[in-house]
Amino acid sequence: MKFVVGGAYQGKIETACKMFGLNESDMLNGSNCDFEEAFTAKCIKSYHSMIARLLADGISPVEFTKRLCLENSSAVIIMDEIGCGIVPIEKFERRRREETGRCGCILSSASDTVIRVICGIPVFLKGGKE
User: Fold this and answer.
1) DSSP secondary-structure letter at 35?
2) By C-alpha distance, which of 76, 88, 87, 85 is closest to 46?
3) 100 secondary structure, DSSP code
């Protein structure tokens, strides 16, 4: 598994395309895809949005992510970092932030490559250039 993480609009998608030979057409959008498609997807972008949708539907994002790691270990996962800044007032948003962090830890652990993208620059946290 490959995990690409970073702030919003930092160049994560472009980095994933360049590093792993992907096109945006290879990417499943976590904002609106069918959950089951994730288990066969080549790449999932906006995984943080999928986590919010899972929570809203009463599905455990942690259990879903563990299953994803087992069943689709070759996938590239792209996720925004959302844990920085002011703690949200709304309970759902606090829970979403916490669950997103937990899922990021699971994805990082299961991935052979973890890249944090800052201002379009890939920083390898785990693994190296292929």
Assistant:
1) G
2) 76
3) H
Q: Are the C-beta atoms of 95 and 63 separated by less than 8 Å?
A: no
The answer to whether 23 touches 31, Cβ cutoff 8 Å, is no
DSSP state of 22: -
In terms of Cβ atoms closer than 10 Å to its own Cβ (0-12, 13-18, 19+), residue 90 is exposed
Is residue 43 a contact partner of residue 117, using CB atoms and an 8 Å limit?
Answer: no
Is 11's pLDDT higher than 60?
A: yes
Q: What is the pLDDT of residues 107-125, one digit of tens each?
A: 999 999 999 999 999 999 9
Q: What is the token pair recorded at 128?
A: 């190296």
Sheet containing strand 27-29, edge to edge, reads 27-29, 43-45, 76-80, 2-6, 113-118, 121-126
Contact 88, 73 (CB under 8 A): no
Token code pair at residue 102: 């937990």
